[in-house]
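Suppose a colleague, Dr. K., hands you the sequence of a protein chain of 319 amino acids and asks what its three-dimensional shape might be. Before reaching for any lab equipment, you can write down a predicted structure in token form. Begin with the sequence itself:
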Amino acid sequence: MNHKSRREFLRSSLAAACLAGAGGAAFAGSPRITEDAVRGGGAIAAPAAGSVTAPPLPIQKGLVYSMLPRQLSHADRFKLARETGFAVVQAPTTPEPREAEEMKAAAAAAGIRIDSVMNMDHWRYPLSSGDAATVEKSLAGMRTSLHNAKLWGSDAVLLVPAVVDPQTSYREAWARSQKAIRTLLPLAEELKVVIAIEEVWNKFLLSPLEMAAYIAEFRSPWIQAWFDVGNVVFYGYPQDWIRTLGKRIVKVHLKDFKRKPDGYAWVNLGDGDIDWAAVRQAFGEIGYAGSAIAELEEGKEAYLRDVSARMDRLVLGRP
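The predicted structure, expressed as tokens, is then:
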């Protein structure tokens, strides 16, 4: 799913998120969340007041490939990413082998690492579907994503595991998606690529406790969490999610969320409601040292440099 489509999906899911955040009834039918499941990922307690300011975080700055001007060649897009201060890129699933090889060469020439893959088929073909053919199409897309990751030297593929809708109950989404994902584990282990589960406005995994439990039930190091800071702001606090998921977090998406009298907007980092100091502190407490990938609008060089500078200041804690 392209970046624009992801935003359209988030926007269309706002009403459902309102209902989910209104009370605990939304979780009544979900599988049991145990204390052990949450602790298994190294959940961190909130700190006492007066904590000492931490040094800059050892996080690699990255961006989604769709932020780079689409009219440029692969070579020029990766070069621009490096020149504007980014070290890594998250690339989309690329089924065409020749194009995948071209992207690999372009990234290497620019000194950029493709550190992760944005799986593209999990929205159109959700793993939670009751239709076997739909699920198989989704699995085929994930297999392509995993092989892309191996080719590019990436260590994770982002996966939205399920979608709850009028045809798919929460419990069905949980069970069906886990069953399907388990069939991918042998390939993930063979290729040494983590399947990173993302929380998003898909009416599923609506709290950090549920997400921790969902991942823990796989009992596999090849299933971990992809945490999106902006996606939880409407109904939660990113710093709480970070501490609860703890060491399960292997990758991070960054965007900001702004409440308005007539709705909301996705905005640039620092222009929304996120408490970035609290987010940065939580990342420091769990010892997060992976990549943080900006997932914002496409833009030219000046805009990308500004995003990079905002990441330095807000996320890494650099002056």
